[in-house]
Amino acid sequence: MNRYAMVIDLQKCTSCGACAIACKTENNTPNRSKGQTFNWADYIHEAKGRFPNMEFRTIPVLCNHCSDAPCVEVCPVTPKAMFKTKDGITMHNDERCIGCRRCQRACPYSAQDVDKDKAAYSVISFNDASSEPHGFYRDTKELIKGCTASGKEIAKKAGSLPPDHNRYSHQDYESVRRKGIVEKCIFCEHRVKKGDQPYCVASCPAKARVFGDVNDKKSDVSRLIKKYRPLSLKNNKGAFLKDQEKGTRPHVYYVRSFKARPSKA
Amino acid sequence: MKIKRRDFLKASVAAGAAVAANGPTLNAFAMGQKGGAIGETAGDWKPSSCQGCTTWCPVEIFVQNGRAVKVRGNQYSKQNDGFVCSKGHISLQQLYDPDRVKVPMKRTNLKKGRGIDPKFVPISWDEALNTIADRMMELRKTGDPEKFLLMRGRYTYMRDTLYSALPKVFGSPNSISHSSICAEADKFGSYFTEGLWDYRDYDLSHSKYVVLWGMDPISSNRMIPASIKRFGDVLDNATVVAVDPRLSTAAAKAHEWLPVLPGTDGALASAIAHVILKEGLWHKEFVGDFKDGKNRFRTGKTVAASTFAEKETNGVVAWWNIELKNKTPGWAAKITGVPSKKITAVARGLGKAAPHAIVWLGPGAAMHVRGGYTAMAIHALNGLLGSIDNKGGVMPSAKVPVKKIPKYSKYQDELAKKHSKKQKIDQRGYLTFPALKKGKSGGGVVTNNVAQAILDKDPNEIKVAIGYMNNFVFSSTGTGRWEKALEKIPFFAHLTTNASEMTQYADIVLPCAITKYEKLGFLKTKANGYATCTLVQPVVKPLWDVKMDETEIPWLLAEKLKERGFSNLYDYYKNEFKDPETGKKPANGREFTEYSLKIMTAPLWDGKKDVGGDTIKGWEEFKKRGMWNSSHYKYKKRWGGKFGKDSVDKKTGKTKTKGTKTHKFEFYSETLKEALGKHAKKHKTTVNGVLKACNYTARDERAFVPHYEPPYRRGSKKRYPFVFIDYKSKLSREGRSQNTPWFQEFKHVDPGDQGWQDLLKINPKDAKRLKIKDGDTVKVTSTVASIVVTAKLWEGIRPGTVSKAYGQGHWAYGRVAAENYDAAVPRGGNNNTIMPADYERLSGSTARNGGFTGVRIQKV
Fold first, then answer.
1. Which ipTM was obtained for this model?
2. What is the tens place of the pLDDT at every residue in B144-169?
3. CB-CB: which of B36, B231, B543 is closest to A154?
4. What is the second-level CATH architecture of the domain B722-859?
5. Touching check for B342 and chain A: CB below 8 Å?
6. Is the CB of residue B518 less than 8 Å from the CB of residue B129?
7. Interchain pair B65, A159: CB under 8 A
8. Which class is domain A1-134+166-260?
9. Is some CB atom of chain A closer than 8 A to the CB atom of B90?
């Protein structure tokens, strides 16, 4: 049986931003609004020390696809809208979701409102029930009347909303989620099932992200986990789980250090 | 509690609305359960090129049903290996930007100025082009076509049909490029040492020691995905040192961060050179050695040139005697703020790693008032290390054997011939603007001085101007001068994608195709030892009535000029740009575009000559692949006295040199000596007189060697106690991506920055003294202007200096870029507003680094 996981090599990561933006192009996530980021992939940054001995690092973040996923635990519908696939992916079924947002409250990596909670990111975002998603491409305002376009006009002309809508199909989720339900990273299962890598992995110019089956001892993820001391996040504030601390048994692992080890010179 | 969706919907007021989603894609019920169909809707990956930065990546764009939806690197590319950086992805939101200009526009409010609504109204292409042609013809009628100005911005190599041919055939010398607003001083460093007026390629994969100097290759500069791909391994295989006044991402990841005091980089370079020579660490195979093998480089001691036998270099002893002999790490530590131990360690590390060592010169160290010699001093270290053209070192690009546009001289009439030779509007070649591109007085452009020249009507008045894909009123320092200058020009036409700041001054606006998605053209680029020719191709049909700026629009304009009795440009385009395969003459702008592209790139695909690199069988295959990779650059190609080459000019009989005068890598630059001498002679002064006029302190022999110049500062330390540092964002597509929500959202990938913000980084010590807290609104004032931004307390910046990324501060462009487009309220503040217009005059570069702008910070 597969157990999918991701390893992120922080030494290779240059915090270039490609993965998070590529994810938005793949999964057509809306722009941030009303305390919801809709960034299935995002970053947290840490700075410590004083000039000139300052240390800074970036940690790319996404859904940890936990084995003890609280978001699944609390999902009240039957069958559950948030559930674990047999491959270990924390999957979301749009059709069954009732938008109660219990998952968002239960997930240690999510915030109900990133602004109010001053949270750096949230794994789960909620599509407001009162307005349709992608408001940016529904706006009818023209800055220069008759001369420049509007969001709505662009979407109409392009024949899709959003205009760069990357269409795909999956039995559980839509390529654009409707209002009134939650959404999150699903490890691009629509790609994985076809033998492709999740798009953040496929798009990483540093090859810092590695995706695979941890049950397969020969896989790249298993090899990296064995080679380096992997760490996993405890929450969305950048804290890592300590040795022996299981947390929600997250399956995104971080290896090596963003900053190079001390100089050989 | 267990709930079923059906029950929930019944009870929910929101249920009705959930069904009523607009458009075909959002109806959850229609698209809901698909009985197992999984995967991406069919589409094609189509090749083109990204122009978000100057890496110019070969890319592919995923097109579904005529829409561009995703971006990746070209799978054939040896330059980016099939990957793009964040900028590549962001461009989708430029293509589908709601604020794109979709039709030609005409100004109806004659009053021009910042914040004054031009009251644009839509017009036809015909009316727009007729208006421009009428205004141009007036200049021909009055016999002063030099009053026509063409300003270039972001270009492809299709540029020459517009940029070169149009003004010259019309009769104006005034084709002005944007080049010197960002990096010409950088090229000055390599030209007057190794004869290369270009950016270098860096062999990161094989290097043992890498000094990133005034740049961050994983964030900006010219080989971004290539650097990102290798950086993690470089940290294992080499020692990486970042020299930068602020903590860049490269500095955060590097083994060592040297936060040099802004503008003092030359002192650091001289001290490193001092240690390398004193400790005998130079690469003997390249530089040579003392004849008896005994090192005579001792601090404070002059060395007799006769005791040293040089190999590939010229003047190492002269450099030591004139500049280096007293430039100890102790001396430099006091000037640079970098401890002497660290300076020595870097010098030794480089020496040990030589020749597999890289000193990567970036604009941060070069683009300042006295940055020309700094650029030479830094780049010259590569000479000492023998890393020039070497494995794991520094090299020029391999050749891209493309052709130039056909000659247009026979289409120039008497008026055009005479007037196109007049002094260019940027005052290049004036005493204070040597602009010594490739050693020629006035050889390079002084872009940013055009604003002043227009205001001063010197050398002449400008009556009709066209700008394309440029935004000088935003992208050039001293923006206030550009605002005034643009108010003065009687007629200005802007070719653009968005109603940018510059567009606000336009009389006619022509909507342009977006490069990467809608244009046809080609680019030359390089990385990892490979040169690349990559096509820009229209991968989607434009949504609006836009045209290609460099080829289609000039064709249409040529037709209009012909209708008015001036057919020379049209005749040139029509007769000289025949399809190289069929011989057919172009019938319209689109054919003209394709034929010119075919003419120029033919050697890569016509199979007539083996040009090395990828074999491409024909035009169709070239379009399908989208690119050509060269063979790998040959290491040590110019060793053996090939850094310069002489040839005899057939007309004059005089010997001309391409590259360095001595044909060697010059530590004592005979090439610069000749260039400065000629410029001095032209102005009946001495080299010292030139240096004085250009704000340099060096006199006599120091003028010909790489050396330290104390930083030049605008604003007294008393009134403007802070030094301002401008840097490049990872997400900034040359100032054009700020209207995309993705730029704003992920701005925090730049260290110390936050999404949707424009943050001035200030050291907490300074902030405490000024009672400034994180998130406070602050006013930043220089000698020329003020901006209001948000303060960020940040340990990644030295006390006494403040930094902010370039890019924000748009007061036009669009709804996202500007805080309020209608009211011309900027989001944040433009760095170029507070940085005064000043120059590295020897190269003509705009000063924007080296901490030349003194500022004061006040809490608002």
1. 0.98
2. 999 999 999 999 999 999 999 999 99
3. B543
4. Beta Barrel (2.40)
5. no
6. no
7. yes
8. alpha beta
9. yes
